[in-house]
Design brief:
alpha+beta; Methane Monooxygenase Hydroxylase, Chain G, domain 1; six-stranded antiparallel sheet; 13% strand
Length: 428
């Protein structure tokens, strides 16, 4: 353990406006916690009385075999509570999870890598967020897709299906692109919210086309490297031993097509350890806009600090202030009830669990299927990170109640005591 110091549209708009003002004010960045000051309190940033409850919530989930291990990181204005829990698996002799354990971040990849990469290219004038998908990929025209814009893809309002079909069997990024371009929309672009991996697969391919670099290389050079996210990236077995990475699902010999390069050989069946859990991304080759990033809680915390400080950390600018605003404030088309930034979730049905009962609308974040959360509240200048391998040894465990408990406890530890503005949307 480390311890350092809507119910109505008007209410939703007021909460969101307040959050926007806080972000645009360019608040001072959260400093690195180098030396341990006095124990934290509410005044110092965090209410330490909540820490035992956080430990208990995660410990109970481990005891119920909802996840074998996890790392939790909570931070507010330089005060940090970080703890590792459990083991890599349920076997008693399995390696213990450590604060530096690397996890498959699943769909956190969308906000750690893909959306920021698109916004960086938009800053440079190389991507027009209002341009049509078919302007960049003429082969994607037809099937109702001609009206899809880059903004629609980023806000999950393209009308495309949730994911690519697995059959007939296919592999490789070229095949994934052809499949994505062959899809027809089910709703007019801009008229309907559906969370879709296809949207972000296409966005990752857009980054490669516009920048001339694969998404993993671009993200490493422009985001992870400059931000000091030392253990973050795609295809982790190129950089580290499998023993440093929490395992995920045990797969059958035919579950997912080949994974290229240094992770070859893992598709004969068995434990996925350092190989992306998402089966579509395994078929693509381990690098995609929808998933594929592996990271640590400490690295994700650096990313969160960067956003709270308006796009900079330790004197290094990663994103421009306008890109931060677009990423984390409502950018959904008019009439869409699910509120999303150009990446971050704000008030869709998927936000209700990680937001808990106290963080308001205007806080933002994302989750990942493997059991991961990043949630940030600009009002209290707090955030929390949960990384876990709840998909070991399969993906049947339900951790949604844990998400709600952790979101509420994180808010309480950060000084929030009154419920945030809530909607009537049902949780998924």
């Amino acid at each position: 353990m480390r311890l350092y110091p809507t119910n109505t549209l008007l209410r939703r708009q007021a909460a969101l406006a307040g959050a926007c003002l806080l972000l645009l004010a360019g608040c001072a960045g959260l400093p690195e916690s180098a030396a341990p000051p006095a124990p934290a309190s509410v005044q110092a940033g965090l209410d330490s009385a909540r820490f035992a409850q956080i430990d208990s919530a995660i410990g109970e989930a481990i005891g119920e075999r909802r996840l074998p291990g996890a790392v939790f990181h909570l931070e507010r204005d330089g005060a940090v509570y970080e703890q590792a829990y459990g083991r890599f698996s349920y076997e008693p002799d399995a390696a213990a999870v450590m604060p530096g354990t690397v996890f498959d971040a699943a769909s956190l990849s969308k906000v750690l890598s893909t959306a920021p990469s698109v916004l960086l290219l938009a800053e440079e004038g190389r991507i027009d967020l209002e341009a049509k998908l078919a302007d960049y990929f003429p082969e994607c025209a037809g099937g109702g897709k001609d009206a899809i814009t880059i903004r629609h893809l980023l806000t999950h309002t393209s009308g495309l299906a949730a994911g690519l079909p697995a059959k007939p069997a296919w592999s490789g990024d070229t095949a994934a692109h052809a499949l994505a371009c062959a899809q027809a929309v089910t709703h007019a672009p801009g008229s309907f919210f559906r969370y879709s991996d296809i949207n972000y697969i296409l966005l990752g391919q857009l980054v490669r086309k516009v920048s001339g670099m694969p998404l993993d290389v671009f993200a490493q050079e422009r985001i992870f490297g400059p931000l000091g996210m030392r253990d973050t990236g795609y295809l982790p077995l190129r950089r580290m031993a499998a023993a440093a990475i929490a395992p995920t699902q045990k797969i059958a010999a035919d579950a997912g097509a080949s994974v290229h390069g240094d992770v070859a050989g893992n598709t004969a069946g068995g434990l996925l350890q350092g190989v992306v859990h998402d089966p579509t991304v395994r078929r693509i080759g381990g690098v995609a806009g929808s998933a594929g990033v592996f990271t640590t809680a400490r690295d994700v915390a650096r990313f969160a600090r960067m956003l709270l400080s308006g796009g900079t950390l330790d004197g290094v600018r990663i994103l421009g202030p306008d890109s931060v605003r677009l990423l984390v404030t409502v950018q959904s088309p008019p009439g869409i009830a699910a509120l999303r930034g150009l990446g971050m979730d704000i008030d869709s049905p998927y936000a209700l669990r990680p937001r808990g009962s106290l963080y308001p609308v205007g806080s933002f974040g994302h989750t990942g299927f493997t059991g991961c959360i990043l949630w940030i509240d600009p009002g209290s200048r707090s955030f929390y990170v949960l990384l876990s391998n709840r998909v070991y040894p399969d993906d049947k465990a339900n951790v949604l109640p844990l998400y709600t408990r952790l979101g509420t406890l994180a808010a309480q530890a950060s000084g929030l005591s009154e419920p945030g503005v809530k909607t009537d949307a049902a949780a998924p």
